Structure to design on (276 residues):
Protein backbone atom coordinates (compact mmCIF):
# COMPACT_ATOMS: atom_id res chain seq x y z
CA UNK A 1 0.00 0.00 0.00
CA UNK A 2 1.33 3.44 -0.94
CA UNK A 3 -1.65 5.71 -0.36
CA UNK A 4 -5.44 5.61 0.02
CA UNK A 5 -7.71 8.36 -1.23
CA UNK A 6 -11.09 9.32 0.14
CA UNK A 7 -14.19 7.58 -1.25
CA UNK A 8 -15.69 9.67 -4.02
CA UNK A 9 -18.38 9.70 -6.66
CA UNK A 10 -17.07 9.02 -10.15
CA UNK A 11 -18.45 7.99 -13.48
CA UNK A 12 -21.25 8.67 -15.91
CA UNK A 13 -24.73 7.13 -16.23
CA UNK A 14 -24.39 3.41 -17.04
CA UNK A 15 -25.78 3.66 -20.61
CA UNK A 16 -22.97 6.13 -21.39
CA UNK A 17 -20.14 4.29 -19.60
CA UNK A 18 -17.75 2.13 -21.60
CA UNK A 19 -17.60 -0.23 -18.63
CA UNK A 20 -20.45 -1.15 -16.30
CA UNK A 21 -21.83 -4.01 -14.22
CA UNK A 22 -25.01 -5.86 -15.11
CA UNK A 23 -27.12 -8.88 -14.19
CA UNK A 24 -28.14 -11.35 -16.85
CA UNK A 25 -31.73 -12.53 -16.53
CA UNK A 26 -32.96 -16.05 -17.10
CA UNK A 27 -34.91 -16.65 -20.27
CA UNK A 28 -38.68 -16.24 -20.09
CA UNK A 29 -38.41 -13.48 -17.47
CA UNK A 30 -36.67 -15.55 -14.78
CA UNK A 31 -34.52 -14.34 -11.90
CA UNK A 32 -30.88 -13.21 -11.94
CA UNK A 33 -28.50 -15.62 -13.59
CA UNK A 34 -25.01 -14.16 -14.00
CA UNK A 35 -23.28 -11.10 -12.55
CA UNK A 36 -21.38 -9.50 -15.42
CA UNK A 37 -18.71 -6.94 -16.13
CA UNK A 38 -19.67 -5.29 -19.43
CA UNK A 39 -17.33 -3.46 -21.83
CA UNK A 40 -18.76 -1.44 -24.71
CA UNK A 41 -22.13 -3.11 -24.22
CA UNK A 42 -20.75 -6.67 -24.44
CA UNK A 43 -20.33 -9.15 -21.57
CA UNK A 44 -16.59 -9.29 -20.83
CA UNK A 45 -16.37 -11.24 -17.54
CA UNK A 46 -18.66 -13.36 -15.44
CA UNK A 47 -18.13 -12.50 -11.76
CA UNK A 48 -18.76 -14.18 -8.41
CA UNK A 49 -22.44 -14.97 -7.90
CA UNK A 50 -24.47 -12.81 -5.50
CA UNK A 51 -25.21 -15.57 -2.95
CA UNK A 52 -21.96 -15.04 -1.02
CA UNK A 53 -21.46 -18.80 -0.59
CA UNK A 54 -20.48 -19.58 -4.18
CA UNK A 55 -16.78 -19.62 -5.13
CA UNK A 56 -14.92 -16.47 -6.12
CA UNK A 57 -14.99 -16.03 -9.89
CA UNK A 58 -13.67 -13.91 -12.73
CA UNK A 59 -14.31 -15.75 -15.99
CA UNK A 60 -13.43 -14.16 -19.31
CA UNK A 61 -16.17 -14.46 -21.92
CA UNK A 62 -15.93 -14.76 -25.71
CA UNK A 63 -16.83 -11.13 -26.28
CA UNK A 64 -13.99 -9.75 -24.10
CA UNK A 65 -11.76 -8.15 -26.73
CA UNK A 66 -11.22 -4.49 -25.78
CA UNK A 67 -8.71 -2.59 -23.64
CA UNK A 68 -9.67 0.76 -22.13
CA UNK A 69 -6.37 2.64 -22.06
CA UNK A 70 -6.34 6.39 -22.71
CA UNK A 71 -3.76 7.97 -24.99
CA UNK A 72 -3.88 11.23 -23.00
CA UNK A 73 -2.74 9.40 -19.85
CA UNK A 74 0.24 7.54 -21.31
CA UNK A 75 2.82 10.14 -20.29
CA UNK A 76 1.63 10.60 -16.67
CA UNK A 77 1.53 6.81 -16.21
CA UNK A 78 4.93 6.12 -17.74
CA UNK A 79 6.52 6.57 -14.30
CA UNK A 80 5.53 6.09 -10.68
CA UNK A 81 2.37 7.90 -9.61
CA UNK A 82 2.95 9.23 -6.07
CA UNK A 83 -0.61 10.20 -5.21
CA UNK A 84 -3.97 8.91 -6.52
CA UNK A 85 -4.94 12.46 -7.52
CA UNK A 86 -1.79 13.25 -9.51
CA UNK A 87 -2.18 14.39 -13.14
CA UNK A 88 -5.97 14.02 -13.24
CA UNK A 89 -5.73 10.24 -13.73
CA UNK A 90 -8.74 9.43 -11.54
CA UNK A 91 -11.04 11.85 -13.33
CA UNK A 92 -9.84 10.71 -16.75
CA UNK A 93 -10.50 7.02 -16.11
CA UNK A 94 -13.56 7.79 -14.02
CA UNK A 95 -15.23 9.01 -17.20
CA UNK A 96 -15.12 5.41 -18.50
CA UNK A 97 -16.92 4.00 -15.46
CA UNK A 98 -20.54 3.80 -14.32
CA UNK A 99 -21.62 6.43 -11.83
CA UNK A 100 -21.05 5.26 -8.27
CA UNK A 101 -18.87 5.42 -5.18
CA UNK A 102 -15.22 4.41 -5.57
CA UNK A 103 -12.29 4.09 -3.16
CA UNK A 104 -8.93 4.98 -4.79
CA UNK A 105 -6.04 2.77 -3.68
CA UNK A 106 -2.48 3.33 -4.88
CA UNK A 107 -0.64 0.01 -4.54
CA UNK A 108 2.80 -1.41 -5.16
CA UNK A 109 2.46 -4.82 -6.79
CA UNK A 110 4.93 -7.47 -7.91
CA UNK A 111 2.90 -9.51 -10.42
CA UNK A 112 3.34 -13.21 -11.06
CA UNK A 113 1.77 -14.48 -14.29
CA UNK A 114 -0.50 -17.48 -13.70
CA UNK A 115 -1.74 -19.91 -16.36
CA UNK A 116 -4.99 -21.65 -15.29
CA UNK A 117 -4.38 -25.24 -14.27
CA UNK A 118 -0.64 -24.65 -13.85
CA UNK A 119 1.50 -23.94 -10.80
CA UNK A 120 0.15 -21.18 -8.57
CA UNK A 121 -3.39 -21.25 -9.98
CA UNK A 122 -5.79 -20.10 -7.24
CA UNK A 123 -8.73 -21.91 -8.81
CA UNK A 124 -6.94 -25.28 -8.85
CA UNK A 125 -5.36 -24.88 -5.41
CA UNK A 126 -6.74 -22.59 -2.70
CA UNK A 127 -10.27 -22.51 -4.05
CA UNK A 128 -10.50 -26.29 -4.27
CA UNK A 129 -9.23 -26.50 -0.68
CA UNK A 130 -12.08 -24.22 0.42
CA UNK A 131 -14.95 -25.33 -1.89
CA UNK A 132 -13.90 -28.60 -3.47
CA UNK A 133 -14.33 -29.08 -7.22
CA UNK A 134 -17.44 -28.02 -9.11
CA UNK A 135 -20.16 -30.51 -8.21
CA UNK A 136 -21.49 -30.76 -11.78
CA UNK A 137 -18.27 -30.78 -13.81
CA UNK A 138 -16.09 -32.49 -11.22
CA UNK A 139 -13.36 -29.94 -12.04
CA UNK A 140 -12.03 -26.68 -10.57
CA UNK A 141 -13.45 -23.39 -11.76
CA UNK A 142 -11.73 -22.18 -14.94
CA UNK A 143 -11.24 -18.44 -15.58
CA UNK A 144 -10.53 -18.70 -19.35
CA UNK A 145 -7.68 -16.21 -19.03
CA UNK A 146 -4.14 -15.98 -17.74
CA UNK A 147 -4.01 -13.58 -14.77
CA UNK A 148 -1.57 -12.18 -12.23
CA UNK A 149 -1.28 -12.93 -8.53
CA UNK A 150 0.13 -10.05 -6.54
CA UNK A 151 -0.63 -10.33 -2.82
CA UNK A 152 -2.34 -12.30 -0.08
CA UNK A 153 -2.65 -11.95 3.66
CA UNK A 154 -4.69 -13.15 6.63
CA UNK A 155 -7.86 -11.26 7.51
CA UNK A 156 -8.25 -13.39 10.64
CA UNK A 157 -7.73 -17.04 11.56
CA UNK A 158 -10.71 -18.15 9.44
CA UNK A 159 -10.51 -15.63 6.60
CA UNK A 160 -7.88 -14.86 3.94
CA UNK A 161 -7.44 -12.05 1.41
CA UNK A 162 -6.33 -12.96 -2.12
CA UNK A 163 -5.43 -10.29 -4.70
CA UNK A 164 -5.50 -10.70 -8.48
CA UNK A 165 -4.86 -8.50 -11.51
CA UNK A 166 -6.92 -9.57 -14.52
CA UNK A 167 -6.08 -8.32 -18.04
CA UNK A 168 -8.99 -7.44 -20.28
CA UNK A 169 -7.27 -9.38 -23.07
CA UNK A 170 -4.66 -12.14 -22.63
CA UNK A 171 -0.93 -11.35 -22.59
CA UNK A 172 -0.54 -13.19 -25.91
CA UNK A 173 -2.34 -10.24 -27.49
CA UNK A 174 0.30 -7.79 -26.26
CA UNK A 175 2.86 -6.34 -28.68
CA UNK A 176 6.20 -8.08 -28.01
CA UNK A 177 8.26 -5.01 -28.83
CA UNK A 178 6.27 -2.88 -26.38
CA UNK A 179 6.67 -5.45 -23.60
CA UNK A 180 10.43 -5.63 -24.21
CA UNK A 181 10.68 -1.83 -24.04
CA UNK A 182 9.08 -1.87 -20.60
CA UNK A 183 11.37 -4.70 -19.45
CA UNK A 184 14.39 -2.60 -20.42
CA UNK A 185 13.04 0.49 -18.66
CA UNK A 186 12.25 -1.48 -15.50
CA UNK A 187 15.72 -2.96 -15.42
CA UNK A 188 17.00 0.63 -15.41
CA UNK A 189 14.82 1.43 -12.37
CA UNK A 190 11.62 2.79 -13.95
CA UNK A 191 8.45 1.95 -12.02
CA UNK A 192 5.43 2.64 -14.28
CA UNK A 193 1.81 2.88 -13.16
CA UNK A 194 -1.18 0.80 -14.25
CA UNK A 195 -4.87 1.58 -13.64
CA UNK A 196 -7.71 -0.80 -12.80
CA UNK A 197 -11.32 -0.94 -11.72
CA UNK A 198 -11.55 -3.31 -8.78
CA UNK A 199 -14.05 -5.39 -6.85
CA UNK A 200 -13.89 -6.85 -3.35
CA UNK A 201 -15.94 -10.06 -3.17
CA UNK A 202 -16.33 -11.84 0.17
CA UNK A 203 -17.15 -15.52 -0.35
CA UNK A 204 -17.73 -18.25 2.25
CA UNK A 205 -18.15 -21.92 1.44
CA UNK A 206 -21.19 -23.55 3.04
CA UNK A 207 -21.10 -27.00 1.41
CA UNK A 208 -19.11 -28.75 4.11
CA UNK A 209 -17.05 -30.54 1.43
CA UNK A 210 -13.77 -28.66 1.76
CA UNK A 211 -10.54 -29.40 3.58
CA UNK A 212 -10.25 -25.78 4.73
CA UNK A 213 -13.62 -23.95 4.52
CA UNK A 214 -12.15 -20.50 5.13
CA UNK A 215 -13.85 -17.34 3.90
CA UNK A 216 -12.03 -15.80 0.94
CA UNK A 217 -11.81 -12.07 0.28
CA UNK A 218 -11.11 -11.66 -3.42
CA UNK A 219 -9.62 -8.27 -4.34
CA UNK A 220 -9.73 -8.38 -8.13
CA UNK A 221 -8.27 -5.61 -10.30
CA UNK A 222 -9.51 -5.52 -13.91
CA UNK A 223 -6.92 -3.66 -15.96
CA UNK A 224 -7.98 -0.47 -17.69
CA UNK A 225 -4.41 0.53 -18.56
CA UNK A 226 -1.14 -1.35 -18.16
CA UNK A 227 -1.37 -4.65 -20.03
CA UNK A 228 2.19 -4.41 -21.37
CA UNK A 229 3.49 -3.08 -18.05
CA UNK A 230 2.13 -6.00 -16.03
CA UNK A 231 3.52 -8.60 -18.41
CA UNK A 232 6.91 -6.86 -18.44
CA UNK A 233 6.97 -6.64 -14.64
CA UNK A 234 6.17 -10.33 -14.31
CA UNK A 235 8.88 -11.24 -16.82
CA UNK A 236 11.50 -9.00 -15.22
CA UNK A 237 10.57 -9.67 -11.59
CA UNK A 238 10.02 -5.93 -11.04
CA UNK A 239 7.28 -3.93 -9.28
CA UNK A 240 4.73 -1.59 -10.80
CA UNK A 241 2.34 0.83 -9.17
CA UNK A 242 -1.35 0.14 -9.54
CA UNK A 243 -4.05 2.76 -9.14
CA UNK A 244 -7.13 0.79 -8.13
CA UNK A 245 -10.57 2.36 -8.33
CA UNK A 246 -12.49 0.03 -6.01
CA UNK A 247 -16.22 0.03 -6.69
CA UNK A 248 -18.08 0.16 -3.39
CA UNK A 249 -21.55 -0.32 -4.81
CA UNK A 250 -20.81 -3.31 -7.07
CA UNK A 251 -18.55 -5.33 -4.75
CA UNK A 252 -19.90 -8.25 -2.71
CA UNK A 253 -18.68 -6.74 0.54
CA UNK A 254 -20.04 -4.46 3.22
CA UNK A 255 -18.95 -1.03 4.38
CA UNK A 256 -16.99 -2.49 7.30
CA UNK A 257 -15.09 -4.76 4.90
CA UNK A 258 -14.20 -1.84 2.65
CA UNK A 259 -13.04 0.16 5.66
CA UNK A 260 -10.68 -2.65 6.71
CA UNK A 261 -9.14 -3.14 3.29
CA UNK A 262 -6.43 -0.42 3.36
CA UNK A 263 -5.02 -1.73 6.65
CA UNK A 264 -5.13 -5.33 5.40
CA UNK A 265 -3.38 -4.36 2.18
CA UNK A 266 -0.65 -2.70 4.26
CA UNK A 267 0.08 -5.94 6.15
CA UNK A 268 2.95 -8.24 5.27
CA UNK A 269 2.28 -10.86 2.64
CA UNK A 270 1.39 -14.24 4.13
CA UNK A 271 0.06 -17.45 2.64
CA UNK A 272 -2.92 -19.33 4.07
CA UNK A 273 -1.70 -22.04 6.46
CA UNK A 274 -3.77 -25.22 6.13
CA UNK A 275 -3.51 -28.62 7.71
CA UNK A 276 -1.69 -31.17 5.58
Amino acid sequence: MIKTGDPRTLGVPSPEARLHFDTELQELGGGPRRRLLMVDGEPAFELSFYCGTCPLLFRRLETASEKLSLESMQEPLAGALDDPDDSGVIDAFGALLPEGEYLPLLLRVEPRLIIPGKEGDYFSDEQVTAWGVDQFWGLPQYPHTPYYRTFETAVDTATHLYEFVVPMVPPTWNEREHVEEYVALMEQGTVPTAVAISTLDVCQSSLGLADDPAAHWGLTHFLLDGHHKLEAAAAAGRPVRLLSLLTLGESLAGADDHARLPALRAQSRSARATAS
